[in-house]
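Sequence and structure are no longer studied apart. To make this concrete, we show below a single chain and its fold as tokens.
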Amino acid sequence: MTKPIRWGILGAAKFAREQMAPAIHAASGAELAAIATSNPEKAAPFTAFAPGLVVHSSYEALLADASIDAVYIPLPNHLHVEWTLKALAAGKHVLTEKPICLKAAEIAPIIAARDASGLLAAEAYMIVHHPQWLRARDLVQSGAIGQLTHVDGVFTYDNRADPGNIRNRADTGGGGIYDIGVYTYGSARFVTGAEPEGLQARMQQENGVDVWAQVTGIMAGPLGRFTYSAITSMRLHNRQEMSFHGDKGVIRLTAPFNANVFAEAQLELRRGMSVTTERWPGVNQYVLQVQNFGDSIRTGAPYPCPLEFTHGTAQMIDKVFAAAEVISLA
């Protein structure tokens, strides 16, 4: 039997507790072996489902643990680059929560460290592991909706009641674009292989972070040129949707980002008067992410979301901020 990859987690973040730690524990070929937190009370929910879990009192102690093969980093955004590089320097494979960086240029040293070490480093961009996104890409690229003419996306939620949340703080790399724009922008790139040719953007800000943003423009790639639009917000009612519109049909994903949390993962294909719907009710994209990460380590197979892809999305985010006009609707 192949020895499982032993994982450690830096910090006891809510998302790690609710999604990624259980996914690591459930994934085949993986073992949740350690967590680093100075607060034993925060470790308790993790040890509840992983009784043998080792609790280190510092991030450095976990990285020095020779029994740990891979590290998951769910720290606040502004710490991602620093601890990704430290994990690689410690000889660990590393999966870092999105966004792995706040500026596209920050990925270059991570790529260099990855290449020099021979280790796997990647952003935890889980949607590309989900079969609904693989199916959407195959359909669009095979011409199922004809010539692609427009892509649009929406991802919104409301966290105004939690001003101390790291997403509402500029000092921790907060803002809606870093948190969820990475999905509306990156998923369009993943399906189409296109990059932005020109973008316009408007945003509203509170306390130095974007809480609403609208992006429009032209993207171009192997499928040709098409128009693009996206809205992200941390001040609107929950909504998620991505659509790919061609001259022969439309593909709509109704729970594209938080599958089986926001709603059931579905892909709706409309062609003429025909509508077909595919569903994936039991798929956990976080488990698939962990398993694909492990498979790449063991076999050397290409990882579905390499840093080079992540770099492209980071460049698109840079362009959005550079183009953005700050407005007020008050």
